[in-house]
Amino acid sequence: MISERRNLPRSRTAIHDETGTWYILDNAGIIMPSVTDDVETKLFRLSATLAEDLDGGRLQAALDAVVARFPYFAVELRRGLFWHYLAPLSRRVLIVPDASSPSQDYDVNRRGTCLFRVRTVGRRIACEFHHSLTDATGGMRFLKNLLVEYFRRGAAPSEGTAAPILAQRDDPDLYDLRDNPAPEEYEDAYNRHYREAMPAPDRSRPAFSPRSPCLPRHDYRTIRGLIPLVDALAAAKALGATLTEFLAATYIDALQELWLSRSEAGAPAALGYPARPNLVVSVPVNMRRLLSSSTNRNFSLFAFVSQDMRLGRRDFPEIVERAHHQLRFETDAKAMGRQLSRNVSASNSLIFRVLPLPLKTLAFRILFHFFGENLYTAGLSNIGAVCLPQELEDRVEGFDFVPMPTRDKPEVGIVSWRGLLHVTFGSLASSRELERLFFTRLRKIGLHVRVECNLEE
C-alpha cells in the first residue's frame, strides 16, 4: 500500500497545460508505435452482431456520447523529443464502412489518425483498437457502453429513455455517461503496482516459428470456429483443466503436429530458419484480476505454455496436464510481478529515458523482436464471457474477438456469448494448416465445430 502511494504520481497519464489535456502512453503502450505499420497494424478487433437491423444515425449519436465519456480514447499519436504521447483528436470520430479484412490499412503513425475506429456492415458493429491505447478488457468496456447507449436511444419514452443507461449499475463495466471519468480509468496501472528489487523472469530460448508465404498485402484471414460452450467446458473439466488451459493445450497439440510434419519433411531448412524445438503459446493475463485496478488502459502481462520437442511427441491428455500446471504456476501475483517489475524498471531507467525518440524507436524494435516475438510461437487470448443487461441479451446475436495481425505469429482470440464459444484465428500467412490441425483435434475429442472464414478459397 505504501509503495502504491509512492507510485501514484508516475501512474497518472493525463497532463494538463495551456494547450489542453494530453496523455502519456502506459508502460505496455510505449513500444507499440515503433513496431506498427499499415499491415502489422497492432489493431485488435471486438465486434457485436445485432439480432436486428442497424440504425447508422442512432449508432453515430451513441458513439458521440460514449466518446465524450471516454475522452482518453479519442486521441491521436504525436511525436515528442523523447517519447510518443497522445493528444486530443481535433475531429469527430465517425463510423466508417467495414471491409472483408479486419484491422488492415490503418497506420496510427499518420498525423490526425484516431487510435481506434468503429466500422459497420449489415448488422455488425466492430471496434478496432490500437494496442498502445488499451487491451481487450478496456476495448470490451467501450463496446459494451456503446451497445447499451445505442439500445437506450432506441427505447420508447415509456421504457425510460431519459433514465440512466438501462441496468448499468448492475455491471461495473457500464458507466453513467453523464459522469466525468475518474483518473483511475486512464492510469498506468503498471507504474501504480510496480515493486522495486524484484528478480527478473527466467530467460527463455527462441521459439519455433511456423513460417509460411504471406497473403496479398492488406489481406488478413480470420477463421472462426463456433463450439457449444457447455461441451467445451465439459471436455476441459474431464481432463482436469480450465477452458483456457484446455484450448492452450489444443494449440500446443496442433503445433506439435505441424513441427513434426515440417521436421520430417525437411521444410524448416528449406525455408531458411532452424527447426527450433521449443513450442510456446503466449497467453495474456488480465492483471486487473490479480491486482486491484479499474484502468481502461493496458494492464495485461503474459504467461506461457511450452513444450520441448527434443523430448518427443506427447499425447493430448499429457499436454493438457502440463498446460494446467504451467499456467497455474506462472499466473500468481508474485510470479507475474517479476515480469511487471522488469518491464517498468527498464523503461524508467535514466539511460533509456534520455535517449531521443529515433534511438528509442530503434531500440524498441530490437527489444520487441528478441525479447518478445522471438520467444513465442503463437498467441491465444481468452477474454471470457460477455455480459450485458438481461433486457438486451435477445438483441445481440453474437460477439467476436479478432487478435491483432502479426507476421509469422498465428493468433487466436476467444470470447463466449449465450452458450457459444467463438474461437477466431487471425493470420497473415497463406497456409491454413495450423487452423485445420487445431479444429481437427477438437472434433476428435467429440466437440461439434462450425467453421467460417472471411476470405474465399
Task: Record the SSE blueprint.
Elements: H1 2-11, E1 14-17, E2 20-24, E3 43-50, H2 56-69, E4 75-79, E5 84-88, E6 96-97, E7 116-121, E8 124-130, H3 136-153, H4 189-192, E9 221-228, H5 229-238, H6 243-265, H7 267-270, E10 278-286, E11 300-308, H8 316-330, H9 333-348, H10 350-354, H11 357-370, E12 378-385, E13 396-402, E14 411-417, E15 420-427, H12 433-445, E16 450-453
Parallel strand pairs: 6-7, 10-12, 12-14
Antiparallel strand pairs: 1-2, 2-5, 3-8, 3-13, 4-5, 7-8, 9-15, 9-16, 10-11, 14-15
Helix pairs in contact: 2-3, 5-6, 6-8, 6-12
Question: What features would you describe in this structure?
Answer:
The protein has 457 residues and is α+β, with helices and mostly antiparallel strands. It folds into two domains: 2-192, 2-Layer Sandwich (Chloramphenicol Acetyltransferase), CATH 3.30.559; 221-453, Nonribosomal peptide synthetase, condensation domain (Chloramphenicol Acetyltransferase, 2-Layer Sandwich). It has twelve helices and 16 strands. It has helices at 2-11, 56-69, 136-153, 189-192, 229-238, 243-265, 267-270, 316-330, 333-348, 350-354, 357-370, 433-445; strands at residues 14-17, 20-24, 43-50, 75-79, 84-88, 96-97, 116-121, 124-130, 221-228, 278-286, 300-308, 378-385, 396-402, 411-417, 420-427, 450-453. The strands form three sheets. The chain has a seven-stranded mixed sheet. A five-stranded mixed sheet has the order 6-7-8-3-13, with helices on one face. A four-stranded antiparallel sheet has the order 1-2-5-4, with no helix packed on it. β7 (116-121) and β8 form a beta hairpin. α5 packs across α6 (243-265), α6 packs across α8 and α6 packs across α12 (433-445). The radius of gyration is 22 Å and the shape is globular. The termini are far apart.
